[in-house]
Design brief:
Elements lengths: L5 E3 L8 H9 L4 E3 L3 E2 H5 L3 H4 L11 E6 L3 H12 L5 E6 L4 H4 L11 H14 L4 E6 L15 H12 L4 E4 L14 H7 L8 E4 L5 H11 L3 E4 L9 H6 L7 H18 L4 H14 L10 H9 L3 H15 L3 E5 L2 E5 L1
Parallel strand pairs: 1-2, 1-9, 2-4, 3-4, 4-5, 5-6, 6-7, 7-8, 8-9
Antiparallel strand pairs: 10-11
Helix pairs in contact: 1-11, 4-6, 6-7, 11-12, 11-14, 13-14
């Protein structure tokens, strides 16, 4: 049983209120919104301002912002503060080209002075606690400074000096994207640096209770942030904490159905849009991974565009494969009869 904090990572098109509320119900200690484009927020783009929607039931909740200019980020932070989040988080870790390639997110790992300027601007603009999330460096060649100091150790100290109150670190470089294994050793070096006094949150490849416990025990982090492993499995937090969680396929499918209904409601009761929005969870859910001769059923599930169709296919899956038992091997899910 894990007693230390477990957080739901911020993920675009994933961590909307519907999914956050489910994760919170199953024991997530903190949830994060999808990341919010500072420039779009300042321009009052409706689809962006909608991401500021939070509910008291999901607290504590952090709203994450990203951008490449200090003034715009400060202005965005002031707007975000009006939504009354518990934390304002700065995204210095998103590796995708449309973000990092434009000098925001992980792109700022190549321009540390500007990263620090942005951090100071946001901290000074608001009264809400400011946190940040980043990666180990831009690429393998930037992991260490000329004097041998790990880049992330030096960066963590400098971000701390700017006034952030927590730092989350994903154990990969930007160049790695999500390939290879997350390296937690450098996260541990940041946590064990005597000059660091803010909480350090570790992130990357934590998929099981055993791995979460190992990361806490070995690297001493204050919290663990879980991202992709939660796709189609919001009950993962409960499993890690030893809390009541759905056990059978039927129970887990019932939660997926609940998510579909919540997504439809979040999408303004637009049934097709809500289903499309929740499809990535069907595709990634461990409930459906490793089932024999499942390809055609998966295709039908991902093509269904009414909740009646989706639920009927899910019911057929439970009837046909409901006696399968799930086991997890190196963060991959396999089924055994």
């Amino acid at each position: 049983m894990i007693t230390k904090p477990l957080y739901l990572a911020p993920m675009e098109d994933v961590t909307d209120p519907a999914f956050r509320m489910l994760c919170k119900r199953f024991g997530a200690d903190r949830v994060y919104t999808e990341f919010v484009n500072a420039d779009a927020l300042v321009r009052d783009i409706t689809s962006t301002t909608r991401k500021l929607t939070i509910h008291d039931e999901e607290r504590p909740v952090a709203i994450q912002i990203y951008g490449r200019e200090p003034e715009a980020m400060a202005d965005a932070a002031r707007i975000v503060e009006q939504a009354h989040p518990d934390f304002i988080d700065i995204n210095f870790g998103c590796p995708v080209k449309k973000v990092a390639g434009k000098g925001a997110g992980a792109g700022l790992l190549k321009d540390v002075p500007k990263m620090l300027e942005i951090t100071k601007a946001v901290v000074n603009a608001v009264h809400t606690p400011v946190t940040a999330k980043t990666r180990l460096g831009w690429d393998e060649n930037s992991l260490y400074l000329d004097d041998g100091t790990p880049f992330i150790v030096d960066l963590a100290e400098r971000l701390q000096d700017c006034g952030i109150q927590e730092l989350a670190i994903h154990g990969r470089t930007r160049s790695q994207m999500y390939r290879g294994e997350a390296d937690w050793t450098l996260i541990g070096e940041v946590k064990n640096n005597p000059r660091i006094h803010i909480p350090i949150i570790g992130n990357g490849d934590v998929c099981t209770p055993e791995r979460a416990r190992e990361c806490f025990d070995t690297y001493g982090v204050d919290a663990i942030m879980i991202g992709r492993a939660t796709f189609g499995a919001p009950w993962l937090f409960a499993e890690m904490k030893g809390l009541p969680a759905p056990q059978s396929m039927a129970e887990k499918v019932a939660v997926l159905k609940e998510h579909v209904l919540a997504s439809i409601a979040w999408c303004g009761n637009d049934e097709r849009k809500g289903i499309i929005h929740s499809r990535r969870h069907f595709a990634a859910s461990p409930v459906f991974k490793g089932l024999a001769d499942f390809k055609q059923t998966r295709i039908a599930l991902l093509r269904a565009d009414t909740k009646e169709e989706v639920f009927a296919i899910m019911d057929e899956i439970v009837e046909k494969w409901g006696n399968c038992k799930l086991r997890i091997v190196n963060c991959e899910f396999e089924k055994t009869i």
